[in-house]
Amino acid sequence: MISITIDGRKVKAREGSSILKNLQDLKIEIPTLCFHADLIPFGACRLCTVEVKTNGKWQLSSSCNTNVAGGMEVRTDSAKVKESRKLAAELLYYKYPATKAVKDMAEKLGVEVSHEAAEGNDCILCGLCTRTCHEVVGVDALKFQDRGLGREIEEPKIEYISEACIGCGSCAYICPTGFVKMEDKGRKRTIWGREFKMAACDVCGRYFAPVDQLKWISKTTKVPMKKLKTCVSCR
Amino acid sequence: MNTVSFSSWDGKIADHRKGKPSKAVDVKFPEKLDGRKFSAVMGWNGIVARDAGADIPSLTMAYLKEARKLSCGECSVCMIGIDKVTDIMKAMAAGKGSGESLAEIEEIARGVAANSKCNFGRSSALVPVLDALRYFKEDFIALASGKKKLADKKYSTAVTAPCMEACPATLDIPGYIELIRNNKFTDSLNLIRERCIFPGVIGRACTHPCEEACVRNNMDETLAIRLLKRAAADVVLAKGDGALAGPALEKKEKVAVVGSGPAGLAAACHLRRMGYRVTVFEALPKAGGMASVGIPDYRLPKDILNGEVELIEKMGVEIRLNSKIRRLDWETMKAQGYKALFLAVGAHVGSRIGCGGEDAGNADFIQGAVFLRNLALGKKIAPKGNVVIIGGGNVALDCARSCLRLGFKEVEILYRRSRAEMPASKEEIKEAEEEGVKFTYLRAPKNVLIKSGKVAEIECIKMKLGAPDASGRKRPIAIPGSEYVLKTDMVIAATGQTPDLDFLKNYWFELTGWGTIQVNPVGYGTNVPGVFAGGDCVSGPATLIEALNAGNNVARSIDCYIQGKSFKKDSGFEGIDTGKQRDPGFVSKAAAEKAKFLAVSDRVRNFAEVESGFTAKEAMKEAQRCLRCYRLMVWE
Fold it and tell me: Which ipTM was obtained for this model?
């Protein structure tokens, strides 16, 4: 354990842990839109920004992907921190005014918002779906479209690799804005515009998971398909 | 005279606009961009205006447009910040700005610079816009009040990064690293191959000057750029993927290339992609040049090289092995339909070391290049007791480490300067030391004694370092009377190589003082029309990546020659320190991923690859450390 200072308070922190993890353990509320405890931090939303004292100077840093170091001094509620978070939320709201998660966050951080109901579902490029697909599911069906030198793409977006997708729906579950839409209709699931055949439970007959997903689980865990075709409730 | 009207470059203000004539000031910025004078430039590190009347608001708009293309959009502030500033500027120009417009732009620009995830957002994105607002405020107020209009002019743009500037072939390093980070290994490989047709080879054997320039060096440690490139190649090629895209359109013109090394094959590959029919003539039974016969297997397994050569052949480049050109007959070749010829024969002849016994022709007093070539071509080399290697470059080290693996008992390197001046790469020196190569510095050979047909002794003399010579390194000076004798069974001379240009005798080719081919530095053309040259036979022994760069440029130059266009090099950042950034902000320290190495005891037994690469997961993790230091400049 190492000793760090948060808002003037000396606390113990586990070496190698992120600043955000320590703040959450201390029940200090930190806004986030791209963070999930089970995923590698991404630092995309810039809302969890805190100030870290470096060479005698306070500097901004995203707390999710900054690890603590012995003697580190952190400020979570300075005027600069609040302004930075507010600007990040304001910019997100500027681009995605109709997205509820964004509007709510902006309002919470002091941005003046419209009274009209937010009914849109924009992708805010938080990377939760791509990370889930890669780190948790492991099929890599979702990837960031890259931009850079000579690659003139109008708007960055998430690329869907249809042939890699198993239809598990993890991306729809994790998506904070409702951009990823999934619809189950009996023997059919539709996600990212692709249809998946659902498997019916051998015992109760309920459609409970896409066949492609069961095949994937069978392939990676070596559990035979026959066993997997019984739903969790009937096992 | 370097005169400017205004400069905020590097955050240093030089303002000569207030009625006074502009005068020469100490502004660390070149007089010309792309070989031409400019009126005003906006870049990641500030604004430089040469003319007092430069239109900064219009330049700012043009800059924002280019910045938007480079902003990846992955963090919330940078891309949307650029969008919002652009919208405010447009509103101002349309007469819809408010009194707070400028303050609003400033707030966004400050926030983006302070809170962006990467160095693009922290420098290039909006930092110079802050300078524009601060020092050209009247112009922006005039814009908002309708007194000024935004002009739609043509601007020049250039993008680089500190790592790209250091790379001899200017690879888009942040670009291919970003693709790895986003789990797009095939796209990354294809981006690398735009300027480096041998990613697997270069990912192993490059001297990686990019890593020296990496901005992270000032924070924790460099990004493992070389290993990331290797990962792009390994992950894709191991699956048998990664075919090179052939030409979209076939051309009827033929091009001949002499030499299948990195320079020759790079040119061949790019010319083929442009649609030309390319034939490569190779003297040796193997393709790859020095990558094939100069770098031992433990550093570069030959299946990696062969795999990459095969991909080039599959896209339609014809490589004729064992086809040494003994006398160049360009007239006949032209009659056969070849429109251009590229000489890329490398530098395979060892330089004389000026030591007694050199001309005796003993098989155990051998040139390093010959020794390595023999080894690569499968010639049996019986191990001896002691071997002394003369030289301090990578060839000397490759010979020494190969000798250990062949079973030589004692391997000693003699170098005439000290370790600090040694041109070999630090990694190679360290690995050689670990393996047991003995290094003796400040020694030069005087005489090799041959007794009853065998190399028996080498007489050496001690050296000391004097004043720096033309190369900038301290000149070694012999200490009279310090001679001594070493017993040895073999001597390898590895102090440099020159090209074998005997085959050019029928023509008069202009040569350099070093015995290499003289070319036009821009287009690589020789004095013989239609004949180009590049790689080691022009530069003298250099790195693989420098040879690849020559090949890349020659391909474009030959294309221009055949199509009757004029060849222009990429716009450069000469005279501009791309490593400089006003406020790098806080960067969370993170150690680089490390490659695994074979245990020393296992290494010296055979020629198995010493270093292993990253897995896809390790590569993606390391790629996260890239700060994406794209530097943008827009000028008129």
Answer: 0.93
